[in-house]
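Saturday, quiet lab. Running sequence design on the structure tokens for the scaffold JK sent over.
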């Protein structure tokens, strides 16, 4: 080799794909200071396999492939307790440029998030990124130049509702109670946002927060007591807008950090009933309050008491009934 390259030649050892180089780093994370063993046997037994692996589509045929190969080889050598490194794999989507194309300097469509953070705040950018599409599904989502501004306006509306509560702190307890329908909305939101978070569907969780905020704004105009409901709301907002939520929690007089609070409990007495939309031939004619598990016969009986339904039926009997308990009843004539 010296004849070919000369006396001072240096071999290049870094020839593997970077994904191969990082095929077992998660094992080293368990005990990175150990100078004699690549990992700790007891800790591997406790923590492996990894609960969830989330990455782009390129990971599927590269890093995921190499990591599984390394793990199976180490398992055959009795060096690790499991032969699969990951229990679940999430292939998330890709944020595109405003023109719908993959971001590229040559195309001039690269988005610098720092500029949006500077203009609208970190939480507005964070909420927009969570809202742009389902995190748990592959897909392409073009960056909307107006999207972060819209999230900023949403957060400003949250601030105004909190101000409504804090401004009336001394008299809030003497005000009209938050409506039963509103409290059911809160209970449903507590359940839905938790479920959406577990499934990485952050976008629908934020949509639920937006819908609940609309409910709060109407209730504030009616002078209703929103103290407890808004406290729960800020806890649910915290994973998406952590900085603002911490600030608003302090303004509300909450104890400790909002990020150490338990998730709100669902008031079973409140959530036992649902506001079921009633339709005739697919057109909304009103709603009825029913138990969440009310049978179809009960739902139809209560719906037919509505004057709007009586008029729409015109004396006819429904030929078909479409009923989703707790959500919708459609009488097809």
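Result came back. Writing it out in full:
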């Amino acid at each position: 080799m010296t004849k070919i390259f000369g006396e001072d030649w240096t071999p290049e050892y870094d020839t593997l794909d970077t994904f191969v180089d990082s095929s077992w780093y998660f094992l080293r994370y368990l005990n990175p200071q150990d100078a004699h063993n690549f990992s700790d046997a007891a800790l591997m037994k406790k923590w492996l396999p990894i609960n969830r692996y989330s990455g782009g589509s390129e990971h599927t045929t590269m890093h995921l492939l190499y990591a599984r190969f390394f793990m199976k080889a180490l398992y055959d050598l009795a060096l690790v307790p499991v032969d699969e490194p990951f229990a679940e794999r999430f292939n998330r989507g890709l944020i595109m440029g405003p023109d719908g194309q993959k971001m590229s300097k040559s195309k001039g469509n690269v988005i610098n998030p720092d500029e949006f953070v500077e203009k609208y705040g970190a939480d507005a950018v964070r909420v927009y990124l969570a809202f742009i599409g389902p995190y748990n599904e592959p897909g392409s989502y073009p960056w909307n130049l107006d999207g972060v501004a819209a999230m900023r306006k949403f957060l400003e509306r949250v601030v105004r509702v909190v101000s409504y509560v804090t401004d009336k702190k001394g008299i809030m307890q003497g005000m009209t109670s938050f409506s039963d329908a509103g409290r059911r909305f809160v209970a449903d939101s507590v359940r839905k946002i938790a479920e959406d978070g577990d499934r990485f569907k952050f976008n629908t969780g934020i949509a639920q927060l937006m819908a609940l905020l609309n409910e709060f704004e109407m209730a504030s105009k009616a002078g209703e007591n929103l103290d407890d409901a808004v406290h729960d709301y800020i806890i649910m907002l915290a994973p998406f807008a952590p900085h603002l939520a911490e600030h608003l929690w302090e303004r509300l007089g909450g104890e400790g950090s909002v990020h150490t609070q338990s998730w709100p409990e669902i008031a079973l007495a409140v959530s036992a009933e649902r506001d079921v939309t009633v339709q005739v031939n697919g057109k909304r004619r009103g709603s009825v309050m029913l138990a969440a598990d009310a049978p179809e016969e009960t739902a139809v009986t209560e719906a037919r008491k509505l004057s709007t339904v009586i008029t729409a039926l015109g004396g006819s009997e429904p030929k078909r009934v479409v009923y989703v308990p707790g959500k919708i009843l459609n009488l097809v004539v």
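Notes for JK: Strands lie at 53-55, 89-91, 94-96, 140-142, 176-177, 224-225, 273-280, 283-291, 320-324, 328-332. The chain has three domains: 7-91, 94-271, 272-332. Ask whether to fix the surface positions before the next round.
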